Amino acid sequence: MESAVTKEKVLDENRRVHALENRYYLSRHPEQTNFFQNAILKNTVDEICATLNPTSKILDLGCGTGYLSLKFLSRGYPLTGLDLSREMIQAFEESIPATLKPQARLVVGDAEEFLSQNQDEYDVIVLSAILHHLFDYESVLRQICARLSSGNKLLVFFEPLKQEVHSPIKFALHRALSWLDEKLYRFEMKVRNIPVLDDEYHHSDYQRQFGGIDPNRVDEVLRGEGLEVLQIKKYCARRYGLHAWLANRVLGTQNTFNLLATRP
Ligand SMILES: C[S@@+](CC[C@H](N)C(=O)[O-])C[C@H]1O[C@@H](n2cnc3c(N)ncnc32)[C@H](O)[C@@H]1O
Fold it and tell me: Where would a tag sit more exposed on the chain, N or C end, judged by fewer CB atoms within 10 A?
């Protein structure tokens, strides 16, 4: 029988899996870098930066290899990037251009522990694809809220969302597109000699077993802590930009969300 999953087990599994992901993380996850997702990423970061001043401080929890962090660094903001995985942080550090290094502070550690020990003030706290890796994401969200003063912002980005496709025809097309997307992806990884890790993710993607993260629940938790939720955007991420475009523009399916909130 499998032993009970504990917070420590989820942390250990995340350390193990992300040591394997390492510098190949974004190559293994083209759904984060294709043209469709790139446009969403750019617009989201531009929208936030339009409200900041040049010295605004950013905290990226679960920064990984710097997917979101690099966007803020290249726009000139001082940034603290925290990640549980030493290997992911190392890969991120190696990819920061020398001119941007003085703005970056990188820390290896658990988000919950960091939030309880570090008392620095941040204008924006960003999270990309980390909530579903946490044992108790609601508790971490509450800790984040406690750190946000009036006018400060929270961005929850690229979180997996439970899919609900009600029409049988739409569902069949959705499954067919998803099948094609995965087939091409596996072929590409094979040609590029990048091993796929899907058997490894079981406990590290802890919240996926509950269907992903429910944006309505995130909204409820944040409002309960006095934040104002400014927007929730739901859409469909796919490995390839063309497939993402078809899923969103033709099928209208959703499996991912972004949320922006502020402390009034
Ligand atoms: C799916 S990756 C996303 C990385 C990056 N944010 C991105 O969007 O490319 C999730 C990241 O969260 C980190 N992580 C998982 N649990 C964590 C925790 N408890 N505290 C801090 N980081 C954590 C992992 O090490 C990994 O780098």
Answer: N
pLDDT in tens, 26-58: 999 999 999 999 999 999 999 999 999 999 999
Task: State in Å: Cα 65 to ligand 1 middle.
Answer: 9
- Please give the number of the atom of ligand 1 that sits closest to the Cα of 10: 16
Average pLDDT, the chain: 94
Contacts of residue 123, Cβ cutoff 8 Å, sequence gap at least 6: 52, 56, 57, 58, 151, 152, 153
pTM to 2 decimal places: 0.95
What angle, rounded to 10 degrees, do the helices at 215-224 and 137-147 form? 40
Q: Is the CB of 62 under 6 A from ligand 1?
A: yes
The architecture of the domain spanning 7-262 is: 3-Layer(aba) Sandwich (3.40)
At 156 the pLDDT is 98
